Structures are given as C-alpha cells and as structure tokens.
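Query form — protein FAD-binding protein

QUESTION: What is the three-dimensional structure of this chain?
INPUT:
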Amino acid sequence: MSKAVFSGDVIVSGGGLAGLTLALALHRAGLAVAVVDALALDARTAPAFDGRASALAYTSWRVLEAVGAADHLQPHARRIEDILVVDSRPLDGLKRGGPGPDQLHFDRREIHPEDDGEPLGWMAENRHTRLALARAADTAGLTVFAPARVTGMEDLGARARVTLDDGRMLEAAMVAACDGKASPLREQAVIRTFGRRYNQDALVLTVEHERDHQGVAYEVFMPAGPFAILPLPGKRSSLVWTERTAAAHALETMDEAGFQEALEARFGDFLGAVRPVSQRWRYPLGLRMAERFHAPRLALVGDAARAIHPIAGQGFNLGIRDAAALADGVVEAKRAGLDIGSEAVLGRYDRWRRTDSAALALGTDAINALFANDHAMIRTVRGLGLSMVDRIPAARRFFMRTAGGETGDLPALLRGEPLSL
Ligand SMILES: Cc1cc2nc3c(=O)[nH]c(=O)nc-3n(C[C@H](O)[C@H](O)[C@H](O)COP(=O)(O)OP(=O)(O)OC[C@H]3O[C@@H](n4cnc5c(N)ncnc54)[C@H](O)[C@@H]3O)c2cc1C
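ANSWER: The structure tokens for FAD-binding protein are given below.
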C-alpha cells in the first residue's frame, strides 16, 4: 500500500465557494487541512466559467473577514444599502420610472443606524469571490491539490482515506463534501436527496446603466418568476432574470438587437439607458436537499447538502453558515482532544444545519409558488401582504435580520469571532 500524500485533520473535497471558506476557517484555527478540486484555479475563475454574482448577507461578510478573504474581495464588491421588493406584471412597475404601490422597502439604517454601519449585504461576482478566497488560501499556506478529482472515500474506522483520480491517497479524521449539488461523495455514501426541478431557468448577465444604483437591490416578482437587479461596483448591475425554461432559452439565444429590446422592455428606464456588458448565462433551477447532512467521517457542506431556488439569494449564504457551524464543532472537539470525525461531532452539525436549511428550502419554494402566480385574487392578497409588512417596522427589521443570517444559535464566525485551538 503506497503512503498517503497528506495525513491530517480534514480533507475538503471541492474548492468552490463553500469548500474554500470551510478550509480557510479550519486552517486558520490551527488544523491540518487539505483541499482537492477537480479544476485548476484558472479554470474556476475564468470569466466564462460562472456568470453569477452573489448577494452576501452581512453575517457572511463577517465570515469572509474572519477567514482573510474580505480584504481581497472588497475592491470588487458593492454594499447593498436598500432592497426594494415589488410585485409587478410585465411592462409595469419599474417601467414607469420607479416601483409601483405593492412594494416593500428595506433600509439598512433601520437595523444598523450608524453612518458607516454594516450594510444589508454585499454584492460580488462569484469569480471575484473565488479569487479572493484563493488568494487568502495562498497567503495562509493552505494545502491545495488541483486539478485532481476525488474518486472515492473509505472509512478506516478511526480515520478516512480519500483516493484521487491519479491514484494518490490522502488521510484525515474527517472529510467535508463541498463538491456541489451533484456531490459525488454524497452519492457514494448513499445519502438520498429529495426535491424537484422547477419549470424555470435563470438568465444571468451584467448590465451597465446611465445612472448610479446607489446600492439599491431590486426584486421584481413577475408571473414567470423573479427579476432581480443587483448592484455591482460602478454603474453596473447583475441581472437574474427568471423565465419559464423555453422563454429563458429563447432569451439566451436571441440576437443582440432583439435582446436589447427585450431588456429595455423589462428593465425600464429608471436608471437611464441600459445595455448588456457580458455574455448571457442560463441556469436551470431546482430544489435538492439531502435527507441527512452526514455519514461516517463525512459531512455535507454547501450545495452538496442542499441547493435551493435563488429567489432569496441565500444558496451560498447557507453554505457559509454550514462552514461556520461545522468549523465551530470541529475546532471545539479538537481543542478538547476528542475525535473530530466522530458521530457526536458530525451528528450535532447535521441537526444544527438541517433545520435552518429545511426552513429556507421550503420557504423559498413557497414564495416562488406564491409570486409566480398571476391569479387576480392572489395578486391582491400578496400586494396587501407586501404593503402590510412595509408599514410595520418590527416586521421589516425581522426580515432584514433573517436575510442577514442573524437568527437562531449563531456560530462564532457569523458573529465575526475567529476560531482558534
Ligand atoms: C442564478 C443563481 C443565482 C444565485 N444567487 C445567489 C446569491 O445571490 N446569493 C447566494 O448566497 N447564493 C446564490 N446562488 C447560489 C450559489 O451560487 C451556490 O449556492 C454556490 O455557488 C454553491 O457553492 P458550492 O461551493 O457549494 O458548490 P460549487 O460552486 O458547485 O463548487 C463545487 C466544487 O467542487 C468541485 N468538485 C466537484 N466534484 C469534485 C470531485 N469529485 N473532486 C474534487 N472536486 C470536485 C468543483 O470543481 C467545484 O469547484 C445562486 C444560484 C443561482 C443558480
């Protein structure tokens, strides 16, 4: 039997957004960690690889600060100061130069009143977030194997062994599957998933507009799904334009003049002239949740544990919360001299994260069903609902704190406290 090329505390399979966040949190706390990714960093951060930009909740930003990635990301990120939620119909609402009456306004000063207080969140293109995490990993001296694909994991009793496609082996007390929504390690551990494919795809692109967005994020509910305008640095916004699958495909493949016309009709002119400045990407949408988040010596993290509808911009935020909760338990166990891959440690992580995940997975599913409905009575009721919440300051603050990730039992990293042994 050949010798393992790495023998330590934790092996992270998947150096995506969730995997690198977890690996950095553990490495900086003093654990011996190795990350494996199937793709080289250049491939994962190439402009065409991922067109998405993510809304990062303010507690997620605290985690990126604690793991040393926020400084690298800040020049490429934009604070979200306000969020406007609008219930609209095609060619309505924003088209007339601003949101209509059935709207809900979240203002960060209601929960963080200081002039330089925390924003509601930050917007950053995923490729910049990946690069910032990779730079932090480099600075911290994290061990990374890439490109290398994990082909299997074996439970050796007191340790776990991971095999790579080039035959190399790694050993550790536990393995974190951060290998995305199709998670090969989850499949290998025979953890079932449930969920469904929505008849919706998200078209994603970056646009430039004449006027400054002033850090306002817009979520416009349309009958086919939400249309989000999310502020990026400069006079640029990232669009998440949800349509039925066939319509999204048509938009994706439309010629430039036709697409410009469709864009203007949907976006309106409230930020002046608007034009695409990126290619168009299309993401099929679905809900997938693992029936459990752990197996012997294995923890599921990020999209490997659950992938949800982007309607609330929470997918990666949930992955960050997974990473923070798992790191909390693992560091505490290591400090106490306990087995970090034991059932006690991984079972606690599972219980902690599955409740929050189920609530958000079902919540986003229900909101999507409620708003992607053009029935006149339902429109009236949800318009009333938005206006009611808009009039109740305590309700607005509750929603802002929930979206910001500041609910329930917060792991130390979400409170902005670094971990150490
Ligand atoms: C349209 C859209 C908009 C979104 N907007 C937001 C938002 O605003 N805010 C938000 O929080 N979330 C958002 N999300 C969700 C977010 O993008 C995902 O939750 C996040 O990218 C998942 O990251 P991850 O690290 O878990 O998985 P991934 O990014 O899929 O990373 C998995 C990694 O594992 C590697 N890998 C896979 N198999 C192997 C293997 N066998 N061996 C080694 N490596 C392997 C891959 O190469 C990859 O690097 C959005 C999603 C969509 C579709």
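ADDITIONAL NOTE: Residues 6-411 form a domain with the FAD/NAD(P)-binding domain fold (CATH 3.50.50.60).
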